[in-house]
Design brief:
mainly alpha, two-stranded antiparallel sheet, binds zinc ion
Length: 120
Amino acid sequence: MPATFGRRRRPRTTRCKGKGCKRQIKVKNKGRVPKYCSPSCKQEAYLRRRFRSPLELVARDLASIEVREVIEAKIMEILVRLGLAKSNLPPPIIHKPKPEKPSLRLVKNHDDPAGNNGLG
Ligand SMILES: [Zn+2]
């Protein structure tokens, strides 16, 4: 008698977990229930997990940011044209004249050469 007590019953068939495959797989009486119909599906899924997902997520993020920027620019353009918003151009950079630094230098007080403020 197979040791299935307390576990889910072993399916007779299962579907391949390969992307876009879904092929039916016959489950053998022994061993683990297969996830993939073929080594190529297994390898493909592995590579997908291993390499593609992080880069894909980043690429998707970047694409959505670009799209968002384009949409925002278009919306602003329309709002500006309708007079509902000010120009979306960044405010002009105003070059303020630098405040003149007071020139600080050590000077010798000729009336107090000892530098003790007349207390000495
Ligand atoms: Zn497959």
